[in-house]
Write a structure and sequence with these properties.
- This protein is α+β, with helices and mostly antiparallel strands.
Length: 130
């Protein structure tokens, strides 16, 4: 059975969405309709990517990175992953603000942001050699 992990939404994503919304509203109010539509489209695109990202581990030991309707799913064989590291991007007063898992597979890097309560389980499943 597939094990599904949801992605975490970080505080700066919300700031980004508020700024995009503000820009779209201001362009509509100033009668720049084409720019308003562009920013609303961009906002919808980024909301879809942020809130619908999932990491799926199948019984065949593959990792599927699904980022919503507008993006192609990426399928990675876990046994072919070259390195798996846990990183802390930003620390304030010794507390990690942003934590992510970095995966290297065939000269490509993938950054996974699993939910806090699921991070340890996902890291364990990825590093477990069966």
């Amino acid at each position: 059975m597939n094990k599904v992990f949801r992605a975490r939404v970080i505080w700066y994503h919300y700031i980004y969405f508020v700024l995009l919304s503000g820009l779209a509203i201001s362009f509509f109010m100033d009668n720049f309709l084409s720019l308003g539509v562009l920013f609303i489209s961009w906002l919808i695109y980024m909301l879809e990517k942020t809130f619908h990202t999932q990491y799926i581990i199948t019984p065949e030991r593959t990792l599927i990175i699904s980022q919503g309707r507008f993006f192609k799913n990426r399928t990675i064989a876990i046994d072919e992953i070259e390195s798996i590291d846990e990183f802390y991007k930003l620390k304030l007063a010794g507390i990690a603000v942003t934590e992510f898992i970095l995966i290297k597979h065939k000269k490509e890097y993938y950054s996974l942001l699993p939910a806090k309560d699921e991070k340890a389980e996902l890291f364990q499943l990825l590093t477990n050699k069966e």
